[in-house]
Amino acid sequence: MPFVPRNTKFGFTLLWTFATFCGFLLSLLFIEVGEKPDVGVVEAAIGGFLIALPQGCLLKEPIFCIRWILSSLLGWSIITAIGIGAVGWIIPSTQILPLRILSGAIYGALGGLGIGLAQWLAIPHPVAWRWIFVSSASWAVAVPVGSAVGMILRRLTQLFLGEVMGLAITWLLVGILTGMNAHKLRCLG
Questions:
Q1: Mean pLDDT score of the chain, rounded to an integer?
Q2: Domain assignments of the chain as residue spans, ordered by start
Q3: What is the DSSP letter of 8?
Q4: Quick check: helix, strand or coil at residue 90?
Q5: How many CB atoms lie within 10 A of CB 83?
């Protein structure tokens, strides 16, 4: 997207969202979307890499890019290994909407916290700790919204693809919410 100015907050947020979403779409070629036990650590690491690579390319310094990719890979691997799951690729098993929203908010916040903690290691600035909260809050909002939309689309269409569309909405929201703050990271890096 060469026509979008990277140096404005809006332009960078748009590019970050585009990069995040394209990374998610690419990850679907390597990761089978499923319930929590179906998505393993290797798949989460692959997905984390495919998301972080285009994001990292938007960051200012090459060393920051490398640290961002490695820390993201680490974060996704850890949250999956400890049982939280690869929240960006798992579909909740419950079909009860309020329970799905509540569990989505909890798992989203925990997953975002884990990813944010790992990515925080890559950010070379004293106020970088704020990223932990940005990541956690972004996922806590995006996962229940995407999960609810996915469930509704699945019920309307009777196709599992509805759930995948819900995950796409999750990643779009994460891209937007984190992108609004990632512009500051680019300036810090």
A1: 90
A2: 9-188
A3: S
A4: strand
A5: 9
